[in-house]
Design brief:
single chain, 147 residues, alpha/beta, 2,3-Dihydroxybiphenyl 1,2-Dioxygenase, domain 1, 4-stranded mixed beta sheet, globular
Length: 147
């Protein structure tokens, strides 16, 4: 058997706020949605491919101290795409970790931005190259594992 990730489904507390956030930061398109009061959801993606589903069926903030999702990571083509995303994240006032672009490890070429969505779900947008001029927050540990 071979596997590849399909789409990721996230529980959110406010579908409108989350949908707006993901559309602005990632440039996703809406593939489908429901506005029924007790069955609200949105299907988001790019270039005809479903990538993310949002389900309004939770309350509160993402619990980082319990087993489950650590963070959700998206790869982009280059470090300039990461920097464009960082600009939007800052404009939206979202929580941004490591004060912007950070290398995955000291001296690594890969790296990105580490931030949170409106529900506190930890996210990463990274490029495989171009981050080597950005400092790593912790020289001897993977940046993506500690935010």
């Amino acid at each position: 058997m071979t596997f590849q990730t399909g789409h990721v489904g996230l529980n959110v507390s406010d579908l409108d706020a989350s949908k707006d956030f993901y559309l602005k930061v990632f440039g996703f398109e809406i593939f489908g949605e429901s506005g029924e009061a007790d069955r609200r959801y949105a299907f988001l993606g790019l270039d005809g491919k479903l990538l993310l589903t949002l389900w309004q069926q939770s309350e509160g903030r993402f619990a980082t101290g319990t087993p489950g999702l650590h963070h959700l990571s998206f790869q982009v083509a280059d470090i300039e795409a990461v920097r464009r995303a960082e600009t939007v994240i800052r404009e939206l006032g979202a929580t941004l970790h490591h004060d912007g672009v950070a290398a995955h490890r000291e001296g690594a070429s890969s790296g990105g931005v580490f931030f949170e969505d409106p529900d506190g779900i930890r996210l990463e947008i990274f490029s495989p190259t171009g981050a080597d001029t950005s400092p790593a927050p912790t020289p001897d540990a993977p940046t993506c594992g500690f935010f």
